[in-house]
Amino acid sequence: KNEVEQSPQNLTAQEGEFITINCSYSVGISALHWLQQHPGGGIVSLFMLSSGKKKHGRLIATINIQEKHSSLHITASHPRDSAVYICAVKGYPSGTGNQFYFGTGTSLTVIP
Amino acid sequence: KAGVTQTPRYLIKTRGQQVTLSCSPISGHRSVSWYQQTPGQGLQFLFEYFSETQRNKGNFPGRFSGRQFSNSRSEMNVSTLELGDSALYLCASSLWFRDNTGELFFGEGSRLTVL
């Protein structure tokens, strides 16, 4: 069983479209991270959330702690947004301490 | 401000050997965490260090170990290498805030190939 589930796995969008990537998790968490990885590139942190909503430029991240769900939105998508987006949580599994759990990633392609 | 530095960037080993990877965090960051990334399993958490102490550990066998030095630099070691250990090993540094990890800043990784 995966502690973190992301959807969709793959996403193709036209430039300018509004994009939503979803993340559900099954453990109690202290924080949720959204990460971006370009092909052959390193990983960049986009957001760290423990509640509510955050916005950076065209990116918005929300989290609902009660429903154990987070969404990453990209407004006015651009080809440079093409990357893999990974949801990660720092969880509190019972009896084993905190550890990070990762989703399998959403591969986004934005077509000009 | 220099980012997270990982060395070596690439290395090739044979089964049964051991390997040591190094991670220098961003200046002022005292937390370092390590991850394994493979095409089949994705990203997996190895361990996390703060103030020279292992704070959290993932579900990897004892062949995987690490340590952190007083200057916050960290090393991880894999002994008795297996073919399945071939992967990109990433470290991330962060501030430690309210007894927990802050935003993660990743290095470019060390790509290990085991033959």
Question: What is the compact description of this entry?
Answer:
The complex is a heterodimer of chains A (about 110) and B (about 120). With about 110 residues, chain A is an all-beta fold.
Q: Mind describing the biggest β-sheet of chain B? A: 7 strands, mixed
Distance between the amino and carboxyl termini of chain B? 37 Å
Proportion of residues in helical segments of chain B: under 10%
Number of strands of chain B: 13
The percentage helix of chain A is under 10%
Query: Helical region count of chain A?
Result: 0
Overall shape of chain B = globular
Biggest interface: chains and residue counts? A-B, 21 and 24 residues
Spatial shape of chain A: globular
Task: Provide a descriptive summary of the structure in words.
The complex is a heterodimer of chains A (112) and B (115). Chain A starts with a strand and ends with a strand. In chain A, the strands form two sheets. In chain A, strands 2, 4, 5, 9, 10 and 11 form a six-stranded mixed beta sheet that branches. Chain A contains no helices and eleven strands. With 112 residues, chain A is mainly β. Chain B contains no helices and 13 strands. In chain B, strands 2, 4, 5, 6, 9, 12 and 13 form a seven-stranded mixed beta sheet that branches. In chain B, a hairpin with a 5-residue loop joins strand 7 and strand 8. The N and C termini of chain B lie far apart (37 Å). Chain B is mainly beta and 115 residues long. Chain A binds chain B through residues 30-31, 33, 35, 42-45, 48, 86, 88, 90, 97-105, and chain B through 33, 35, 42-45, 48, 55-59, 90, 92, 100-109.
